[in-house]
Amino acid sequence: MDELQEIREDFLIEAFELIEQMDQDLVELENDPDDLELLNRIFRVAHTVKGSSSFLNFDVLTELTHHMEDVLNKARKDELKITPEIMDVILESVDMMKGLLEAIRDSGSDDCGIEIKDICGRFDAISNGEDVPSADAKADEEVEQECQAQVEDAPEEKQMSEEELANLTDEEVEAEIERLLAEKQKEKQEKKAKKKATTSEQPKQQKPAPAKKVAKKDNKDKKVSSQPEQTIRVEVSRLDNLMNLIGELVLGKNRLLKIYDDVEERYEGEKFLEELNQVVSSVSLVTTDLQIAVMKTRMLPIAKVFNKFPRLVRDLSRELDKDIELIMSGEETELDKSIIEEIGDPLVHMIRNSCDHGVESKEKRKEAGKDTKGTVHLKAYNEGNQIVIEIKDDGAGMDPDFLKMKAMDKGIVSEKEIENMSDKEAYGLIFKPGFSTAAKVTGVSGRGVGMDVVKTNIEKLNGIIDIESVLGEGTTFKLKIPLTLAIMQALLVQAQEEYFAIPLASVLETVRINFDEIYTIDGKNVLKLRNEILPLARLSDMFEVEKVLDDGEQVYVVVIGVAESKLGIIVDGLVGQEEVVIKSMGEYLQGIEGIAGATIRGDGGVTLIADVSAMMDIAKNLNVNLVAEAEASQTREKNSPSDYNVLIVDDSKTDRAIMQKGLKPLGINIVEATNGVEALELLKRGDVLYDAMLIDIEMPQMDGYTLASEIRKYSKYKNLPLLAVTSRSSKSDRLRGVEVGMTEYITKPYSLEYLANTVSRNIKLPVGVAS
Amino acid sequence: MSAGLENVLKKQKEQLVSLPQKDKIDEDIMQLVGFIVGEEEYAIPILSIQEIIKPIDFTRVPSTPEFVLGVFNLRGNVIPLIDLRKKFTLPNKPIDSDTRYIVLKDGENIAGFVIDKLTEAIRIKKSQIEEIPETMTKKDGFIYGIGKRDRGIITILKVESLLKKDF
To answer: Among A184, A522, A561, B110, fewest CB within 10 Å belongs to which?
Structure first.
């Protein structure tokens, strides 16, 4: 029984593949009904499926394919001409085959209530040379008799088969398998031989054919030659496991590189460094190669998804009464299996959209002076670390004003939002849930669901949707998707003192801007970048990072794109690009908003990976006005001397007391710290904003020079007066002081008046308020 | 011969029967690891503990309650870190040389917990463990029971509840 199960699984896999191919071939056949090679191939599929299913006792499937085979055989022998009507019947039967196979896969039996008698009857009629009766007419005629005949037959047959099955001995089963295998082998060889033969024949037939067909045939030839001689089926879970291990290795490699950098710095010029360098580079090279190799084992050609589209477009054009041609290219482009699985649905919706909304009706095309035949191009190609799928139609194009109006009618956007909307943003409206421009709900569209599905799925893959449209000439959608999900390139950015990784696939660019380039529209901050208005949000606000430093005059903005929308993220620093391996944070921390996962960096620390699509939502709900905030902090009012704060940093208690005494007449608020570390802590805590600092140079733990240079690292304190108070007065000491950013040098001993004057000058204490 | 064989078989059978009995005696004893958080001593079944480590750096995670300190790297795995003091609404205490992370495991669910100090491994008879008084059951359900010992009592925590995401 187990062996049978295995055979059945193999049969299912093979059958699904065959039928997919058949679908494509059939549509092609319709364009070129005289192509004998195509017919033969289709016939063989029907034949193979029939043979295997009868062996496995799938009677319904056998019956269906048997009738199909009859018709195809006649067509093959030129006794029958394939008309569109006959094609409809054949295609319908292919759909039934799919249904039956799915039933077999799910329940192990093809007895699932799919009614095939009617279609078998129609096949019979076709092969007998009668006109194709419509489904209804046929139903009256033969169904009854056949029904009865079958009902009587079927159960008996079934029982028999089960008995037979049980009675099969191991040897018999094995013999049967061998026979089947041999048959298949023979068939394969035949197929190959025939294919070779036809490739040489093809040029002759092609001459009158349009250019498009040449391109298609070329592709086919390529497929034949690139078909691997030997393949093995591997469980996906094993590949996943392999991928995880590679992930660990990549982390190890990153760590090694980091350690090497440290070692290089410390032991510069040492001999062993060279050797170490060689090992490190070769390990890192091999790791990268290995990673690519394993990634490739998971790669599938996108043809797997594309294959069903010719059929889809054919059906759609008949349904919509339009003349649409689908031109595909780049089917051999490869993508990770998990992405292939996710991308099918969105593409179906995109193509439906292009056929329904993009390409106009025949009449309209004629009026516009276009060829009545519309085209939809479907193209896949690699671009850097991404794959681009382009869906281009030569239809009516999109009218941004019309879209805006529609969106407003449906209450999806407000009037205010529309005012500032660029054309590109208007195109993006089609992805809003509930948005549809269709006048009425048809079988194809109008519910405003499809494009929303596209957006959600593409977002899930960290992909970007780019839309270009010219009114009257057509629309081009570009889906940009990363090649793989488990390991990715990320941009590491800094928010205050924390780090985050942003998937590089979503990063469009990084810019450095002046704070005064930020505008406020409707209470929200925006940036005008070239001709686009970008919403802005600060990373530290999005992720509630505790504020220790202030924004400087200039800020870095990382522009990210998710599906069709963009956002500028203000970060405090750009760290660099790194390869990261996505790790889950465990059950306990699952589903944290804005965080897609975590990764382990070269130094062993954990860095969180931002979930860009969630960031978009977070940014929308943020209510921080950066411009207003900056203005508020500047105009902090100071009415009396006690509003001024000065920090004294000195390890000697006596010295501190002297300074206190000197500054007392000013009436300002004085805070003390005993060393550099403590002073820095006080400064970072930020509960008191200091106007000046008096710093001793000789201190335990952290000396004055180090403290000054640490303080100057924060842009917030770039202009904070730092006054060195020291007895070290040599020129080199003073020079060092200037280097680290000391504002002034007060040498000990000093008079108390001198100290008070210097301080009040530096904190710009108004003369009037000084007592 | 056959009698001898039968004897051997019988002996084996007896052994088989007596083995679980021996286990049963062991089952009656619960092995725990004791530790201190705040003023009180708590214990956790030893089998739920994956390991105990000294404090290492962690990374804050946004949009989480205060008691979730963040995540840390445990030999290549990213693991959440929870502050038991904060979880029990006790005042803060800086990390010192006694502070440890206890990594607890319940199936696939793993998290590290910050504790003030480890005390000792404890063997306690199950009969010495009492269910918590009804008046106290409200206390978040973290408590498995109260263990009675020669010197005082010990609160045994429920690992599943500690590892349950409650936000």
So the answer is: A522
Same domain? For A261 and A408 the reply is no
CA neighbor of A709 nearest in space, from A722, A699, A700: A722
User: A621 in contact with B at a CB cutoff of 8 Å?
Assistant: no
Kindly report the nearest CA distance between residue A620 and chain B, in angstroms.
16
Facing residue for B61 by CB, picked from A589, A604, A605: A589
Phi, psi of A169 (to 5 degrees): -85, 170
- Cβ atoms A336, A224 nearer than 8 A: no
Q: Is residue A230 part of a domain?
A: no
Which whole number is the average pLDDT over B12-38? 71
Model confidence pLDDT, tens digit, residues A552-566: 667 889 999 877 788
Pick among A589, A592, A601, A617 to test the B interface (most B CBs inside 10 A): A589
**Residue A354 main-chain phi, psi, to 5 deg:** -65, -40
Distance, in Å, from the CA atom of B112 to the CA atom of B80, rounded to the nearest integer, reads 6
State residue A222's pLDDT score.
Answer: 44
Cis amide leading into A721 (omega within 30): no
- For chain A, the average pLDDT equals 77
Residues 6+ apart with CB under 8 A from A196: none
> Cα–Cα distance between A147 and A118 in angstroms, integer?
10
Tell which of A252, A268, A297 closes a domain: A297
- The answer on A564 and A530 residing in a single domain is yes
Residues A595 and A655 both lie in one domain: no
Q: What is the pLDDT of residue B101?
A: 93
Q: Which residue of B has its CA nearest to A597?
A: B78
Q: Residues 6 or more apart from A305 whose CB is under 8 A from it?
A: A340, A343, A344, A347
CATH number at residue A649: 3.40.50.2300
- Residue A714 near residue A665, CB atoms below 8 Å: no
Bridge-based pairing of strands A487-495 and A498-503 is: antiparallel
Among A498, A586, A598, select the one facing B109 at the smallest CB separation: A586
Structural domain span for residue A151: 2-224
Tell me the range of A231-245, A722-736, B31-45, B150-164 where mean pLDDT is highest.
B31-45
Q: A212 with A316, same domain?
A: no
The residue with tokens 């407000």 is: A414
Instruction: Judge whether residue A143 has pLDDT over 80.
Output: no
Q: Do B61 and A586 touch (CB under 8 A)?
A: no
pLDDT band at A211 (very low <50, low <70, confident <90, very high): very low
Q: What CA–CA distance (Å, rounded) separates A378 from A309?
A: 9
Phi, psi of B142 (to 5 degrees): -80, -15
> Shortest CA distance to A274 belongs to which of A287, A264, A284?
A264
Residue ranges of domains in chain B, CATH in brackets: 29-162 (2.40.50.180)
What are the tens digits of pLDDT across the range A627-678?
Answer: 666 666 555 556 677 778 888 888 888 888 888 888 888 888 888 888 888 8
Distance of CA A70 to the CA centre of its chain: 47
Whether residue B63 and residue A604 make contact (CB cut-off 8 A), yes or no, is no
A514 and A398 within one domain = no
Q: If you average pLDDT over residues A178-205, what whole number do you get?
A: 56
B79 touches chain A (CB under 8 A): yes
B58/A contact by beta carbon, under 8 A: yes
pLDDT category at A89 given cuts 50, 70, 90 is confident
* Closest alpha carbon within chain B to A604: B73
Which chain B residues contact residue A606 at CB under 8 A? 58-59, 70-73, 78
Three-class SS state of A771 = coil
On whether both A141 and A42 belong to a single domain, the answer is yes
- Residue B50, classed as helix, strand or coil, is strand
Residue of A nearest to B61 (CA): A608
Measure the CA–CA gap between A505 and A613, rounded to whole angstroms.
12
Active site residues per annotation of A: 47, 69, 353
